[in-house]
Amino acid sequence: GDGLFIIARGTVKVTVGNFLVDILGAGSVIGEMAVLMGVPRTATVTADSPVTALWLTSLGMREIMKSSNVLEEQLWKTAGTRFCENFLGKLEPYQQWTQIDFRRWLSEGKVTAVKNGDTISLTDKIAVIISGQVSHKGMTIASPAMIKSGEVKFINEGRVWVG
Q1: What DSSP assignment string belongs to 23-54?
Q2: The pTM is what?
Q3: Where is 76: in which H helix or E strand?
């Protein structure tokens, strides 16, 4: 992804294949996962009404994020939660949940930046490794991965969603 959009006015439909994923309006960000995580774009976004949007290049977005930790954390929260929705939504039992229940549960999770050597205990929690690598039960696991129990130790910098 070479940039992202911020919708200023209007609405768009987000589809993956023939499946309607979301309808977004003013204030919504599109393309943050590609910018932050370097992953390919997977959705099609189509204007549902006349739309005015702000385009920010990846380089420009990174420059803005350097001056605002709050903005950077909010973008990671949005991207991380969407990433988890895409990643976990294909797995049981999440596949059977209603979309509203699944999204509500995901929104209660937290996306955190981690450094080499940081550990996270997953008692009664699950983690989705968004970026980076962890050591878990003697194995090295690279993102993306879901871990349901135990303790994970990060081998390098990364991001993790815990819920």
Answers
A1: EE-TT-EESHHHHHH-PPP--EEEESS--EEE
A2: 0.82
A3: helix 69-88
